[in-house]
Amino acid sequence: MTVLFIFAHPDDESFCGAGLACWCRERGHDVVLVCATRGDAGKAGRAEISGAPADLAAARARELQTAAGIIGIGDIELFDYRDQHLAEAGVDEIRARLVAAIRRTRADVVLTFDPNGFNLHVDHVAISRFTSEAIAASADDRWLPDTGPGHRVRRLLWISPLPPWEASRARDLASEPGIDFVLDISPWRERKAEALRAHRTQHDSIDRHFFSQPDVDRILSVETYRQAWGPPLGRRPSGDIFEGL
Q: GO terms for molecular function, please (predicted)?
């Protein structure tokens, strides 16, 4: 099967799905990434580059390639929309590009942010909306026939509203609202840490949320997701994102 990550910025894939990517690859499934911006509005941190947007964008693109390689994502499509201005992108254009990506990869599962963007980031909110629209459009053969035959995604997953640094402390994840899948990613904890560290320009936020936490090992050992739609689950939370497919 194929899982398609659709995110807004370089580092979203490591923050939100590094363990899932490793989990999928271990089971022989493919993981593909679409990243809508190059993160040029972020901060350069302690990286040895200037703060110029073009330099930062180039650095973050390199970091993304490195991190993706660590967690087994070999197919990356990096768009060039303006960081923090994704909502202003031409709706028809970005939706068409996402439809083309979904049809090209024949994705069984798509992972993106929930409609609130996880943390209300404007780009996260925008990519969530664009993704939902593209999934619906991709199933309709009449829509953009030049991008290939229609394809129906079988499950849409959202990043759960409970951040990993809070999920690791919850005693009963099954009682938490918005959590349908809980993955034990402890076998790939070090690989997730390595992927996060590959985003050197973003060390401030990564250190704050992960490596400066006293229970960092636990934080790096669990990922949680919410089912936006898909086949019903036999039990909740499930430990298998392909359950019922």
A: hydrolase activity, acting on carbon-nitrogen (but not peptide) bonds, in linear amides
